[in-house]
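$ ./design --mode recover --in tokens.txt
reading tokens...
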């Protein structure tokens, strides 16, 4: 997609992306989000474990699991000394707790072997047990404010298609990320994921999105939307 082409909405796609972020992040909420992000960035190891545990798990259960786990140990050095049973009990509320318990211990040991620091590249992060592309990209942003790519989950993919930024036939997260990066300004790559996740949970539902009350209704083509709700 040509980033300088003016869309039917009277602006280029990069400008439409900027307008979307402005509307979905009012000044007050943006400041609160920045404060929360700064708090997380003081804890790279927690960000890494959280992104790994979050796979196919709701935010509330991920947070509960993290809190229980980090009460027991809060560094790779301490975490590697826990037993499998201790880790499993702490994270039992996440999806697939058994393999994730092994990942927690395995990546903790590997981090200790490499000096104890959480890596700062996707390539290095994906060498860790249980850390895939999505977890790596999300960890970089949450832990260090580094956005090499746009992290794609179900919300980002679905909303990207409805907004017309992503081809509906594109399914692989990495390919969706590349299509988004072609039109979304680089300074928005990092916050795009958390913004779309919040938006997807509150308004742009998987089925029956609340288009009539959506703040983007005049700049969204609603691609693929056939039914909607006002709730």
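writing sequence...
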């Amino acid at each position: 997609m040509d980033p300088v082409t003016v869309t039917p909405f009277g602006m280029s796609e990069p400008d439409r992306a900027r307008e979307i972020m402005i509307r979905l992040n009012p000044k007050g909420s943006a400041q609160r989000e920045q404060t929360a992000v700064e708090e997380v960035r003081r804890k790279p190891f927690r960000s890494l474990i959280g992104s790994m545990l979050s796979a196919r798990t709701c935010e509330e259960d991920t947070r509960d699991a993290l809190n229980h786990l980090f009460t027991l140990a809060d560094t790779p050095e301490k975490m590697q000394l826990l037993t499998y049973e201790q880790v499993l009990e702490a994270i039992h509320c996440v999806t697939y707790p058994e393999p994730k318990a092994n990942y927690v211990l395995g990546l903790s040991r590997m981090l200790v072997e490499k000096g104890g620091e959480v890596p700062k590249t996707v390539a290095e992060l994906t060498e860790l047990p249980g850390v895939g592309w999505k977890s790596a990209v999300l960890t970089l942003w949450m832990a260090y404010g580094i956005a090499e790519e746009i992290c794609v989950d179900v919300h980002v993919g679905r909303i990207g298609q409805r907004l017309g930024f992503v081809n509906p036939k594109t399914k692989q997260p990495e390919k969706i990320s590349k299509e988004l990066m072609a039109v979304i300004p680089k300074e928005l790559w990092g916050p795009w994921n958390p913004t779309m996740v919040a938006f997807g949970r509150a308004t742009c539902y998987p089925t029956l999105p609340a288009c009539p009350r959506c703040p983007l209704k005049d700049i969204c083509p609603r691609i693929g939307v056939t039914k909607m709700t006002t709730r």
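exit 0
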